[in-house]
Amino acid sequence: MRNKAMKLRLLTFAMMGLFGAAVFAQDAQQKSMPCMEGMVMPGCTPAKKQQPLQKQNKPGMQHDQPQDMNNMPGMQMGQQQNPQSPDTHATMTLQEPESPANKTGANLPAPELLKEVVTRPTMSLNDFTQLADANNPTLKEAGAFVRRSQAKARQAGLYPNPSVGYQGEQIRGGSYGGGEHGGFVQQTIVLGGKLGLRRNIHEQESRSEQIGVEEQTYRVHADVQQAFYDALAAQVTVHLRQQLLGIALDAVETVHQLANVGQADAPDILQTEVEAEQAKVDYVTAQRHYLETFRVLASLAGKGDLPASPLQGDLEKTPDLNAEQMVESVVSDSPTVKRAHQEIVVAQARLKDAKREPIPDLTLRAGEQYNFEQVSERPVKATGPQSFASAGINIPLWNRNQGNVQAAKVEIERANQDLLREQLSLRQAAAPLAQSYESAKFEADRYKTQLIPRSTRAYELYLKKYQSMAQAYPQVLVSQRTLFQLRVGYVMALREVWRNAIALQNYTLSGGLHAPVSTDTPTTTINLPNAGGAQE
Predict the structure, then answer these.
(1) CA 244 to CA 485: how far, in whole Å?
(2) 496 phi-psi bin (left φ>0, alpha ψ -120 to 50, beta other)
(3) 184 CB burial (10 A radius; 0-12, 13-18, 19+)
(4) Which pLDDT tens digit goes with each residue over 287-329?
(5) Is the model's pLDDT at 17 over the cut of 70?
(6) Is residue 529 classed as helix, strand or coil in its secondary structure?
(7) Which residues neighbour 326 within 8 Å (Cβ) at sequence distance 6 or greater?
(8) What is the rounded distance in angstroms from the CA atom of residue 533 to the CA atom of residue 536?
(9) What residues have CB less than 8 Å from 83, skipping those under 6 apart?
(10) Helix, strand, or coil here: 311?
(11) Do the Cβ atoms of 342 and 415 come closer than 8 Å?
(12) Largest CA distance in the chain
């Protein structure tokens, strides 16, 4: 029994020595953790062109250094390589060493959902912005509102059409015959410059609609930018989850090898298998989340059928904003505020027109007719041709448009209050965004400068202790897993920085697929050709 225990101990030390030598050689080449493309991680050095690490088929426990996210199979940024499944342990038997017949389930690999994605060209934020400008339907709707107001301004300024007709008077039959028959021309002369004032109302509305185009453009760009960085963060998370899955699968392999030499029992195996299965679930969820965020991004760009592609961007290069100044800029320079100012101008134009409307129009009428009335019996002779003319105006005695004038004054008051409401609403929305931006930036900075460096150092120390057989291997895995989880938290913090910064830079506007709002009434019955110059 003593000889058997001695042999088992020597075998265990031999396995640990072989693996420690392999890890030490690998650690000598890579002293620090490699980084994601576009992200300078503390405690890491950018990998120039690192290939995925190959497992060392040596007896004993194995361990992989964290790989460069950009070179990881399944989601290379800017590269077109065939993805390789990180699950290389499909032949592992899931069973308890004390009870080989008690199997806990099949060891199925995690599905690779992004195999085709990595074969497509990468797309940048500028690509999606250009697609949105050309294809987002809400921008075309906003442009249509401008053209409609311009057309209505033209229609409102058109002069009334003249009238022509037949006129007969004193028509009689019998032996006398006679009567007056002829034609006339009638024209209404619009006085007081009312046509120009009516046209000015719609011209001011057209300017309001042009501001609406600017406003909708900010809404679309804000949503596209936020969706892009959401998808970019999801893409980086896929890389991290893939690496975490590799760590979990290494742990499964290691614990099975320890079980073969009597250094691990059933609870150890089951626990590591549970962690590996959870890592598979997280990896698949991360892949599906990337596909989901890409679909949202494509829809906002007006290309809902755009196939998912890798994204190219720098998640860590966040905007450096003065949050308090941004709040004031939002309140003063937002297109929403500009449009509210313009609505006051529209209301003032309506008031000016309402005050001028009581001025009556002049109606002119003239014609020529032939009078068949006989002026003598023998010889019979008719009166002959004669002319007529008339002119008239309405007298603004009872209706001086006083109700519409008062309503226009009230509309100006309402427009001023609406401006104040918009400013307060924007301040209400922007102030929390400014605080959230500062909080997220502080959190991301702490991840970068404090948490990740400490976790990286802890991992390195545990690894060295393990190599000198002064530390148990599971603690190395725990420290490495913690490091990766902190890197995932860092990615989420960066995403929040981007989301809040984008919202502030775009005046808190959102709703890139919401129908734009028009301040003009959707009517096509203004100043009809047969209405004598009247409005709607």
Answers:
(1) 8
(2) alpha
(3) middle
(4) 999 999 999 999 999 999 999 999 999 999 999 999 999 999 9
(5) no
(6) coil
(7) 430, 434, 504, 505
(8) 10
(9) 73, 74, 75, 112, 114, 115, 118
(10) strand
(11) no
(12) 164
Q: Tell me how long the chain is.
A: 536
Tell me how far CA of residue 297 lies from CA of 223, 308, 309, in angstroms: 8, 10, 11
Map residue 362 onto helix, strand or coil: strand
> pTM of the entire structure?
0.79
| 8-state DSSP, 36 | -
Q: 């004038």: which residue's tokens?
A: 405
Question: Distance (Å, rounded) from C-alpha 125 to C-alpha 64?
Answer: 34
Q: For tokens 């497509």, name the residue.
A: 120
Query: What CA–CA distance (Å, rounded) separates 271 from 254?
Result: 13
C-alpha–C-alpha distance, residues 15 and 132, integer Å: 59
Contact 520, 442 (CB under 8 A): no
Range among 89-93, 233-237, 266-270 with highest mean pLDDT value: 233-237
Give how far Cα 256 sits from Cα of 94, 109, 226, 359, 466, Å.
9, 17, 45, 99, 18
Structure tokens at 522: 């959707």
Residue carrying structure tokens 């006679």: 178
Question: At which residue do the structure tokens 């990881």 appear?
Answer: 72
Gap between the Cα atoms of 472 and 500, Å rounded = 43
The DSSP code for 397 is S
Strands 33-34, 44-45: pairing kind: parallel
SS3 of 471-519: the string is CCHHHHHHHHHHHHHHHHHHHHHHHHHHHHHHHHHCCCCCCCCCCCCCC
H-helix segments, 318-381: 323-333, 335-356
Please give the single-letter amino acid code of residue 137: P
The pair of structure tokens assigned to 259 is 């079980």
